[in-house]
Amino acid sequence: DAKTTQPPSMDCAEGRAANLPCNHSTISGNEYVYWYRQIHSQGPQYIIHGLKNNETNEMASLIITEDRKSSTLILPHATLRDTAVYYCIVRGPFGYNQGGKLIFGQGTELSVKP
Amino acid sequence: EAGVVQSPRYKIIEKKQPVAFWCNPISGHNTLYWYRQNLGQGPELLIRYENEEAVDDSQLPKDRFSAERLKGVDSTLKIQPAELGDSAVYLCASSPGQNQPQHFGDGTRLSIL
Predict the structure, then answer these.
(1) Which of A16, A51, B99, B102 could form a cystine bridge with B93, CB 3.0-4.6 A?
(2) CA–CA separation, B30 vs A56, rounded Å?
């Protein structure tokens, strides 16, 4: 089962920041928070991941609370092409023949509107 | 950098027929994954390869599903015989190593009549 809780849907105005929350209250010390998104009829696209520090790349920023029980994905200037399902996933490291799977939940369906 | 390539994009077959999907991972990616995504759900892992070795196939229905990754590069996933419940999108992903981000192809949408 997924270890995360996300709102099922959100709206965002084009050009504004989209802030997508995720709760992961049972996260373990060696588990990372990953974000993927899936645009209709495409495969999931990797966005960003982090352990405990905030992270930023060309696509988004990831803010992880100090207790690591929740995080927020920030798309600073949302465009219509950012409309997608966003998945927050808690993932531990693979050991050989062990876990580390990406377990996808229901995600948040983000609609960016003009 | 070319992404993960999957073919075909769409496949329609009658039940009890065989079907195969092909995946070409990103060059240099040693880890390859096959996922199944049912309508309205997130993807679920079927099998994971490290080079040519299947290291996790616990979720693969072995009575009708098989997979191979010859020479540790391309991979095929086969279903024989297909059942109505196999209708789904089959996704392939690859990563440089097992603890690094996975990159997905656009999948094969399978419809069983």
Answers:
(1) B102
(2) 26
